[in-house]
């Protein structure tokens, strides 16, 4: 089964929690590394809930998903080819794996970004940003799909801010002035 066939419109739902926060909920069936068998009985499917910001000055990703899912007729494969024309319409056929792999490069190029961007570099940036924000490893793993701490730790990147914090902790303590030195100018 190709990874584009794993994701269907039914994998996504949009809702509100008790505090009126909108969210998008993704429930995955399997992943590219899931082959089944007894050694993978403990492997759980992805189950991610992403909340929209409560403030109106930030975009709510659930609104974009709502529009996209409606344009897909709320059924069928999630990744589909757009149809020509000015309205937002999609065909019934799923996008192939090779086309899907090239989306990140195409999107970043159209946005005028310089560099070699891939789906993996997006995943790496996501993990790095979450680490920098102080998000616990277990939550990062749930978003990136890594099963071990060792695998997800490869994405850690130090920022200057983090390096300064480390240096501040490891630097020697401030010099204490000796009682007579202040008067002697030493």
From TrEMBL:
- Where in this chain does the record put each Tyr recombinase domain? 99-159
What's any GO biological process attached to this entry?
Answer: DNA integration
Span-the-membrane segments of this chain are: none
- One Pfam assignment: Phage_integrase
InterPro entries in the record:
DNA_brk_join_enz (IPR011010), Integrase-like_cat_sf (IPR013762), Integrase_catalytic (IPR002104)
Question: Which keywords has UniProt assigned to this entry?
Answer: DNA recombination
Q: Which GO terms describe its molecular function?
A: DNA binding
Name used for this protein in its record: Tyr recombinase domain-containing protein
Report the source organism. Answer: Mytilus galloprovincialis (Mediterranean mussel)
């Amino acid at each position: 089964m190709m990874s584009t066939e794993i994701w269907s419109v039914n994998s996504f739902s949009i809702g509100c929690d008790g505090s009126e926060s909108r969210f998008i909920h993704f429930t995955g069936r399997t992943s590219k590394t899931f082959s089944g068998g007894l050694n993978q009985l403990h492997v759980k499917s992805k189950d991610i809930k992403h909340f929209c910001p409560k403030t109106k000055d930030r975009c709510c990703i659930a609104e974009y998903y709502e529009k996209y899912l409606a344009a897909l007729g709320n059924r069928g494969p999630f990744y589909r080819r757009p149809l020509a024309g000015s309205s937002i319409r999609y065909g019934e056929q799923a996008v192939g794996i090779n086309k899907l792999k090239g989306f990140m490069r195409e999107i970043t190029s159209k946005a005028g970004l310089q560099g070699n961007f891939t789906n993996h570099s997006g995943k790496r940036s996501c993990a790095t940003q979450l680490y920098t924000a102080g998000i616990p490893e277990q939550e990062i793993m749930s978003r990136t799909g890594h099963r071990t701490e060792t695998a997800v730790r490869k994405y850690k990147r130090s920022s200057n801010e983090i390096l300064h914090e480390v240096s501040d902790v490891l630097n020697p303590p401030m010099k204490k002035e000796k009682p007579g030195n202040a008067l002697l100018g030493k």
